[in-house]
Amino acid sequence: QVSTQSTGGENSSELMSDYLSSPLILSAAAVVGGSVAYYLITKPMSKSSHHQKGSSNLSPDLFTLVNAGKAADIPKNSMRDVEVNEDLKVLLVHTEDGEFYSIGNKCTHYGAPLSKGTLRGNRVVCPWHAACFNACSGDIEDAPAIDKVDRFDVHVNESGEVIIKVPKELPKGFRRLPTLCRADTSYDNRVFVIVGAGASGAVAAQTLREEGFKGKIILIGKEKHVPYDRIKCSKSLNLSIDTIALRPADFYQTYGIELILGKAVVSLSLPADKKKGSVVLDDRTQVEFDQVLLATGGNCRQLKSEGYELRNIFTVRFIEDANGIGEAAKTAKKAVIIGSSFIGMEVAACLVLKKIQVTVVGMEKEPFERVLGEEVGAAMRRLHESKGVSFRMQRTLKRFLGDGVVKGVELDNGEVLDADLVVIGAGIIAATEFLQGVLPLERDGSVLVDEHLKAHEGVYVAGDIARFKYGKTGETIRIEHWDVAQQHGRIAARNMLGKNEIYQSIPFFWTSQYNVSVRYAGNAMKWDRILLKGSVEQYKFAAYYVLNGQVLAAATVGVDPLATAISELMKANALPSAQVLADHPLEFPLSL
Known about the structure:
The chain is built from 13 helices and 38 strands. By secondary structure, the chain is of the alpha+beta class. It has a 6-stranded antiparallel beta sheet. Strands 14-13-12-18-31-30 form a 6-stranded mixed beta sheet. It is globular and about 80 Å long.
């Protein structure tokens, strides 16, 4: 059974203020030398210690005992916030099997209220982006969170009241670093190399230390920056690496993760017959490894039409791209966006809010049509038009116009659009050039992997470049989603350590434009029917993408946490058929 609560949007000023003011992680000193109280809330405890009669023999001076109400009055399979004081609330979870647990009440990804999310078994799922935490321990179960939440002791006293024991002194913020080991090559002399310092690579490096790997970890990235929250590059045009870094530089130093940044891998030699493999960098440095994870992501597709070398023509992949667009936007009057999918439309929303006249050029009849369908795409187009964005759909670029600096574009029908800023959002190409002749590459440049994300003995592949078998349909797919990349990194790291874990997550992605958030669960390469429930015109609906009667994916707007509930039902193979969904109200999956 799934239990859910409705929620406000992730643009809530209160939550975003909390998010922006909270440290991304505890400092290494805080983690290593934390107080006794911090140890008590992170130390794993047995299941029975959460739900017991009586009280602990620990000093009451260290704790606040919070009465959460009568156990008999709290429904099973429910979550609620419990106020500790005016500055702190915690989450109380009552599971279907009658156990009580308490954890931090905010998602460590972007600060969403977990009480408004989805509960299935012991899984607490964020209502915004489907990050998942274990209700018993506070540990991460699914991306995109990289930090765990607090866990608090709970017991039921002799009067039948639920008592939560909360340390009086907690570390600042609501993010808690998972327990990581330190490097010790005298204990383990293996070398694991991770090629690609993006979402997959960063999470893989962390996961190796979480799983107790003490050998050498080398994380290689072609950018000069530590891994950062790349999805912000199309949502904000004035970024600092300090504010979007997934971890500060000293994190990698503390946990013995060697960074080689600003260097690209140009060749790979596979391990064989007890011989180590190796990669060669663009400065001819050779790095040997026992096992390697390839997570190089993608390169922006370039449109090398006439005039493509003019200044103020941008793609969007790196922090420098976002900031370059932001700088050009300071003086730009008119902008043209080539591409009407997620990157292009997010940048369009940013630019029009800067009072720039924006025109979007797209190949399809409606924006987002390839992924969300024509009707949902039309609704998103109307939203953008209401903000002042113009569209030229079913059109393509012929050439760029200008002299040194772009001044406009000419379309395939001869129409000329004035522009002093052009942004290209034409998708990405798998960054696997260095693998040609080494590993078999698919037509799109991706690498086919098995269910463990392995491509060759000692070689794992994750993120945008991995083509894997999708369990729901049996087809092989490649997905360019942030949470998929992170989850790939987590699973691949465990399998590098011999866990033999199968990747079987449900893809989940999101986009937010003008405070309207689209959330998408599943994967539908094609469909023969879109079942719409709710009101597209009022931006409160669910769209189910159906093939041969089976729901393959769903997109929701304005009905959180419906998308995360659908995702959990998909994971459990419990999502009703399209016919059943058609016969029930919009919110029906929330009750299952």
